[in-house]
């Protein structure tokens, strides 16, 4: 494995371990950011299943955005995952940014999810 990939996995593991300590039973809003799309899931780690999910390739989002790799797409995905989580009865989550820095698309998704009604 390359040094960059190893460092990425190490950062992801470090962030997730810190979240587990502070989560206090809350569900986890996890994101994945690729070069073309952005994905978000609300995960129940105790049961091991996904409660709500949204991505820039969903039909609900695809018509509203120009590309899946910009801040506008991240905002739409954040709003959509928040509405789906609220419909599933989830109001409080812990934000798992993975190994990504909290700026740009990651920050836009988090802010949109907060505006959509999620608390973290």
Could you characterize what this model shows?
- With 120 residues, the protein is α+β, with helices and mostly antiparallel strands.
- The protein has a single domain (3-115), classed as 2-Layer Sandwich (Nucleotidyltransferase, domain 5).
- Helix content is 44%, strand content 21%.
- Strands 3-2-1-4 form a 4-stranded mixed β-sheet.
- A hairpin with a 4-residue loop joins strand 1 (27-33) and strand 2.
- The radius of gyration is 14 Å and the shape is globular.
User: What is the succession of H and E elements?
Assistant: HEEEHHEH
Q: What name is given to the CATH topology?
A: Nucleotidyltransferase, domain 5
CATH-scheme architecture? 2-Layer Sandwich
Which CATH top level class fits?
A: Alpha Beta
Topology overview:
Layout: H1 3-23, E1 27-33, E2 38-44, E3 49-55, H2 59-62, H3 71-87, E4 93-96, H4 105-115
Parallel strand pairs: 1-4
Antiparallel strand pairs: 1-2, 2-3
Give the structure's gist in a few sentences.
The chain has helices at 3-23, 59-62, 71-87, 105-115, and strands at residues 27-33, 38-44, 49-55, 93-96. By secondary structure, the protein is of the alpha+beta class. Strand 2 and strand 3 (49-55) form a beta hairpin.
Task: Give me some keywords for this one.
21% strand, 120 residues, Nucleotidyltransferase, domain 5, 4 helices, four-stranded mixed β-sheet, single chain, alpha+beta
């Amino acid at each position: 494995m390359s040094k960059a990939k190893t460092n990425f996995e190490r950062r992801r593991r470090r962030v997730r371990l810190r979240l587990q300590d502070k989560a206090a039973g809350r569900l986890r809003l996890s994101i994945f950011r690729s070069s073309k799309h952005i994905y978000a899931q609300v995960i129940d780690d105790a049961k091991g299943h996904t409660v709500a999910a949204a991505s820039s390739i969903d039909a609900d989002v695809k018509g509203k955005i120009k590309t899946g790799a910009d801040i506008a797409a991240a905002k739409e995905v954040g709003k959509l995952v928040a509405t789906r989580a609220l419909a599933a009865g989830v109001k409080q989550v812990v934000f798992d940014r993975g190994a990504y820095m909290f700026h740009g698309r990651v920050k836009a998704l988090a802010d949109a999810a907060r505006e959509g009604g999620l608390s973290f």
